[in-house]
Specification:
single chain; 258 residues; alpha+beta; five-stranded antiparallel β-sheet; two-stranded antiparallel ribbon; 8 helices; 7 strands; elongated
């Protein structure tokens, strides 16, 4: 009786092993394969925590090589760029000025933030006009991300804006101020920009003279602007900005802010 039970137990174990052996063998093969791939994977194919930092450093170096020294100093110290509207400042020579250039400042300008919309404003008053949403994704999608380094995003917007302002603004999604960028932040940044330019002019008056139209047209008057936005533009300043802005948008000035 005991011999029969022992023989039956052995046969049962053998049958169960034959049933589970293919599954166990396949699982073992997969584990070995995954382990070998993990051990043989090259370090350069894995995630590099310093990659984004190095990409940003390269992007900053490229941005610095493309823009002038004053704009680079603004971006380095304040974290944004200021671009004059209407192809920048218009310099012309007048005989009455003994051959020195007469600067006609643009009636509107843009602030460029990393991965934020372009913010248009009136330099003479600080009034905010519109936000323009534009995107320049990284089509190579490293590690599944399409986000450019901050400085590359700023450079792409700067190049598009200075190369063909009309086309960029016409293709962008326009929104009223405050849609994505806090108006309070923009006004604080304008105050910081005015303070930065005053301090720079105090340190090196010759640099301020060479910059000419690079200085903020509002000058010291901006320091007295209410950060809450109570300093609104007068009718003449707003009308001039609207006319210039309408030329860029291809719309009538009367319907620009309707």
């Amino acid at each position: 009786m005991a011999l029969a039970l022992g023989t039956g137990a052995i046969l049962l174990v053998v049958l169960l092993w034959e049933l589970v052996r293919p599954t166990f063998k396949g699982a073992l093969t997969r584990v070995r394969l995954l382990w070998s791939l993990r051990r043989s994977a090259s370090p350069r194919l894995g995630y590099d925590p310093g990659r984004e930092r190095r990409a940003e450093l390269r992007a900053r170096a490229l941005l610095r090589s493309c823009i002038d020294e004053r704009d680079w100093a603004i971006y380095r110290d304040l974290g944004f760029l200021r671009v004059w509207g209407g192809h920048g400042d218009d310099r012309r020579t007048d005989r009455r000025s003994m051959g020195s250039p007469i600067v006609q400042r643009a009636s509107y300008a843009y602030l460029i933030y990393p991965h934020k919309p372009l913010v248009a404003y009136v330099p003479q008053t600080g009034a905010l006009l519109n936000e323009y949403c534009v995107a320049f994704p990284d089509l190579s999608r490293p590690y599944g991300s399409s986000r450019l380094p901050d400085s590359d995003d700023v450079l792409a917007k700067w190049m598009a804006l200075t190369a063909d302002e009309h086309r960029l603004i016409a293709d962008a999604n326009m929104h009223l101020p405050g849609r994505q960028v806090d108006p309070g932040r923009v006004r604080r940044d304008l105050l910081r920009l005015a303070r930065w330019e005053r301090e720079r002019a105090a340190r090196d008056p010759r640099a301020a003279d060479r910059a000419g139209a690079g200085a903020d047209p509002r000058g010291a008057d901006l320091a007295s602007t209410d950060p809450a936005g109570s300093n609104l533009p007068d009718a003449s300043d707003r009308a001039a900005a609207d006319r210039a802005y309408a030329d860029v948008r291809g719309a009538d000035a009367d319907t620009l802010h309707a």
